[in-house]
Amino acid sequence: METNQNVSASLDSEYSRQIKENRNIMASIVKTVMFCASNNISLRGHSVDNGNFMNLLKFRIDAGDETLKSHFTHMAGNAKYTSPTIQNEILGLAKGLIVQDIVTDANQSVFFSVIADESCDISGKEQLSIVLRYTKATEVYESFIGFVEMNSVSAESISTSILSHLTSTGLDLQKLVGQGYDGASTMAGHVSGVQKRIRDKYPRALFVHCAAHCLNLAINDQSKVPTIRNTCDIIREIIRFFRESPKRRTCLGLNIPLFCPTRWSEKYKSIRIFKCNFKRILESLGALECDSSGDTRAKAFSLKCALEKSGVTYAVCLIGRFSALIEPLARKLQAVGVCVPDVKNLITSLQNVLSQNRINSDTALDIYKEACEVLNVQQLTTPRIAEKQVYRDNVNAESGPQYFYRAVYIPYIEGLSSLHERFSDNSSFFNLLSIIPPNKPTKLDEIERLYCLDNLESEVILWRSSLSSQLKPECFHELLLSANDYPSVRNIVQIIMALPATTVEAERSFSCMKRVKTWLRSTMTSDRLSDICVLHCHHEKISEEKINQIVSNMAGSRRRMNF
Questions:
Q1: Who's near 559: CB < 8 A, 6+ residues apart?
Q2: Average pLDDT over residues 163-187
Q3: pTM of this structure
């Protein structure tokens, strides 16, 4: 009897030792996959057995991992756990654990919002990025949870994909209070757009138009002024002209960024740098016009002639000055966790500056003098007044400064004034902001019914009277603490924090997508792309505990090795 017990104990001990060894082997493989994914290193090369993943495993063996060496030496080829199928399974399990952590935090928060945007990957597939915005204590988080491949980009298809993806992750959609998209009619349409379809099912999910998109649209409204539109095209062509050739770039001695179609703050930066180096650019074009040959000489001559026109020079100085004001605002809108009240304060500040410049003609005179100094002339040339004018308006002016003030400066400033229309207070979420001083509370009864709150009006009155005069309305941490005794007010403050101000986190996921899925990796499947991008964006969440959990999850199904 004792012998049988000893044999059984020995078998159990050997089995436990084998399980532990197999788990260590699998952990080494999982760690290697995680290292490649989190650092955006392609796993495979020209063949399955020749790539970064396999070379890293060989590196681990060379570094002294005898258990892994024994595994690859003695184990059968179909039980080495390095195949693409196993890689995809590990990536999927890891992504699932990270997304589950994010979903748990979102469900534990009082409210959350969804942010979505769509872009095309390198292989031509439409990818829908989904981001969650939620609060944790007094901090705001925006977390990317994956891509969804879209076969159709209709409002019905996109809204169905968003809701089904959120439901599949286990989110409590009764806590959904906000939607953040761009202003495309498919997404923002108030009749049958994505936001309307989702709000029909979840009435609390208010739609917020991305503030960064709104600002860019307001800036684009300036293109209605012909001089401004033509000047922007000339600036774009000159920047491209110098960047096309290392010789031209060396002649300029400056690297001006291109007009980036997605990173709008770079556009304002490009114009600001162009304006600050106006004279150097003119001198470089003149040098290329004289010393170069062929197409370079002809193009340098035409661009120099275009840039030396009085209207263009004045417009460059004008745009450059106001781009310097807009650039920091655009950069702040790209910050992580920016809230709707922050956006409103920033836009209000910009509107005040523009109003002051609209009234004060000294700014226009300073710009005129700067343009004269750049061209080294006493006065800028003004167009003649024709009896019948087709392509531009006849502007009656007694002097050059007056002409450019009326013909260019005022239309440009009034074009920027469309910020008021783009950021209109008529949006429904501005009713929520009205409870925060110094705003006047409006439509509290509607808010109370929508969010099933109790005694909101009385709580708002008492809460506002109890606030310290030194309390900053934009400091949500202090606002939350001050509303501890007023549950309905506290809920409103948390809803405001959860509302998405911009969609920049979705834009960042597209930057990640472009880094991951390149021309060399264009055959990557959409599931693998989504898994790697989530791991790459949330690399800080990969821990030893998650590695062990992945190994345990893999042990839940039949394997050739026991884990």
A1: none
A2: 92
A3: 0.87
